[in-house]
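Aim 2 progress update. The chain analyzed this quarter is reproduced below.
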Amino acid sequence: MLTNIRQITVNEYHKMAEMGIFHPEERLELISGQIIKMAAKGTAHEAAITRTQRIFNQRLGDRVLIRTQSPIKQILQLLKPMLWIMKIIIPNHQKSF
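Predicted structure tokens:
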């Protein structure tokens, strides 16, 4: 087992991408400070994501924010989940917009 592993931060990951260290077509995620290669997307995968998003949109409507394959930034992670749902909370003073 490796014991001397230096984890990288989200900012370092972004700097590496800006410097061109990763191939533009390379699918990567930063998980717990480690760069992980993601599986390639396929037609069946894309269809499943689209159908799932449609179901959630129909059932939850404007009560939540539904995003597909968008990054979620955390301290040591940059996750790109297939689908994520976030409840929208609007403070009372902003509801008039």
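The two ends are 55 Å apart (CA to CA). Residues 13 and 19 are 10 Å apart (CA to CA). These observations will guide the mutagenesis experiments scheduled for the next reporting period.
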